[in-house]
Amino acid sequence: MTARRAGVAGSLLMIVFVALNLRPAIAGVGPLLTEISDAFRLSGAAAGALTTLPLVFFGSYGLVAPFLRRAPRSETLLVSAMALLVAGLLLRLLDAPFPLFAGSLVAGIAISIGNIAMPTIIKRDHPSRITTVTAVYTVAVTAGASLSSGLAVPVEDFFDSTWRLPLGLLAIPAALAGLLWLPRARRAAHAARSAPPPAPTRGVAALVWRSGLAWHVTVFMGLQSLMAYVVLGWLPTICQDRGMDEAPAGAVLALSAAVQAAGSLAVPVLARRTRDQRPLVLATAVLAFVGFTGVAWAPIGTVWVWAVVLGLGQGIGFATALSFIGLRAHNAQVAAQLSGMAQGIGYLIAALGPLGVGALHDATGGWSVPMAGVLLVSLVMMIPGLAAGRVRTVGEPADPAAHAVNTEINGHIPK
After folding, report:
1. Higher per-residue confidence, 20 vs 6
2. Which of 54, 237, 332, 334 could form a disulfide with 108 if both were Cys (CB 3.0 to 4.6 A apart)?
3. Do 179 and 242 have their domain in common?
């Protein structure tokens, strides 16, 4: 292996190690939620808030980033994210409800920082492999969620412990990931002292937030995430209401989540055979439409097939949405702001999905109207997705908004 390939492999492993830590703080709670609720005598609403609170803050850093005078280095953000994550994981182990919820909130903010920093690093360090590296990154994110949810109860049983042990152990890989990135963060900080000053964050943010293309990327990110959250929050309940027992209904969700990895890995393979990413958007929409239709109205015995269809669609959609951040950004500075915008606004849009489906179900007493609404979202998603899938970038010289902002910030953005 040449030194260059070894460097690429090492960089990829560092990305994977962080990615593995970006979902366990949330996914590991689900299997232990009943025990946690009993320990603190939480109501059903409070127990639900414990799992949804971090999700609401998934894009929180992205909403703050445009107001920063200078953006921190991406390596610094990752180290800070892992440190905050460790703090949040340990805080919620304390024997009181307030630290439990406060720790979940801190964990959500930490994950938000990692979510937004990583696409910038992929754009900067792997500009010719954005789709492939992003696919690997999304597979690692999915794997982290699957491992934490699948091992939480077995670890608790093996050590004959309480829920605190499996959740507390999650702090170890998060701390190791932070330590792994620390030398690189120090080198980046040292290099930044002798480098030309970066473009003012607010100027680049203005360019991105004025761009129609950036809004297409953002809305597509939000709508595909909305459907993923609907599956995460409601698929087992839909299956149970249609006659399945609790354990098989949970297994349906696990199958769908596991198949997402295959969908993510398919993205770079499919991307090599297409001129742009519009076919990937169409595949995401069609698979979502077919999958939700099958889950809602096909014979319940076939739900395993529709779970696979949904998993493939969500894997393709998530990897494509994250790839758009790097592919549609003209440079790493624009990628940092586009990542913040797409995930900051996108995850707020996504959080409306489970709430809306639940409200429609309560109002109608069935699943036909909520599922019809989800099918409508899968069709609407094609509008911003197809626009985002065309080959062009935010911040390129032909972009009028880019020209105006370049002039405003005295040419700091490379052309």
Report:
1. 20
2. 54
3. no
